[in-house]
Amino acid sequence: MKTKQCLKYFMRFILLSCFVFLFIGCGPKSIPFSQKTDVPEPSEAARAHYQWGLDYAKNGDLHRAVTEFKMAILLESRWAIPYYNLGSVYGNMGEINQAILAWERATQLDPDFAKAHYNLAVAYAVKADEVNIYSSKTSFIEKTLVHLREAIRTDKTAHNAAKMESAFDNIRELPEYKSLFESAESIE
């Protein structure tokens, strides 16, 4: 009986808190660390989990970093930056498929997220090197070029980084790759 009464008061408190937050602090704000999105500022709890994820990743505790980035995403599913960092952690763990999923979501939320596009280009190039089936290899190479084009379009430094990226060694002689770089160099 006492537990039900405590639960009832707790639920009232939560409901009242929601109304207070609804009426007091509500206008959309830009997200710190954002890449040109119109998503409102993430909650304090989401920012805390995001920061903890960064701290865990920096200290090499990648499994905890994944957990914290997922918590930030759970709290603010339209915030692209935690997806990007989640992908980076997965990439460092060797979980390339999970990394790709996270970076794809980051680029869906922020189509101009150059770093996420660049990482996707590298990941797809690695996948192309790993497969022996021609159609799969071709598909991964096409995805590599699409994301590399987007990375270069939104951030000119990606052009120079790609010149030195070893993941692109097997596609450098392709006409599509060469034309991508010729068009990027003509813009500069």
Structural overview:
The protein is an all-alpha fold. It has 2 domains: 42-110, Tetratricopeptide repeat domain (Serine Threonine Protein Phosphatase 5, Tetratricopeptide repeat, Alpha Horseshoe), CATH 1.25.40; 111-188, Alpha Horseshoe (Serine Threonine Protein Phosphatase 5, Tetratricopeptide repeat). The chain is built from 9 helices and no strands. The protein has helices at 2-24, 44-58, 62-75, 80-93, 96-109, 114-130, 134-154, 157-164, 175-187. It is globular. It starts with a helix and ends with a helix. Residues 9-34 have low confidence and may be disordered.
TL;DR of this structure?
This protein has 188 residues and is mostly helical.
CATH class of the largest domain: Mainly Alpha
Distance between the termini: 73 Å
User: How many H/I helices?
Assistant: 9
Shape: globular
Question: What is the subunit organization of this protein?
Answer: single chain
Using only C-alpha atoms, the radius of gyration works out to: 21 Å
Helicity level: over 70%
CATH level 3 topology of the largest domain: Serine Threonine Protein Phosphatase 5, Tetratricopeptide repeat
Largest sheet: none
Features of the shown structure:
globular, Serine Threonine Protein Phosphatase 5, Tetratricopeptide repeat, single chain, 74% helix, 188 residues
Task: Provide the fold topology.
Layout: H1 2-24, H2 44-58, H3 62-75, H4 80-93, H5 96-109, H6 114-130, H7 134-154, H8 157-164, H9 175-187
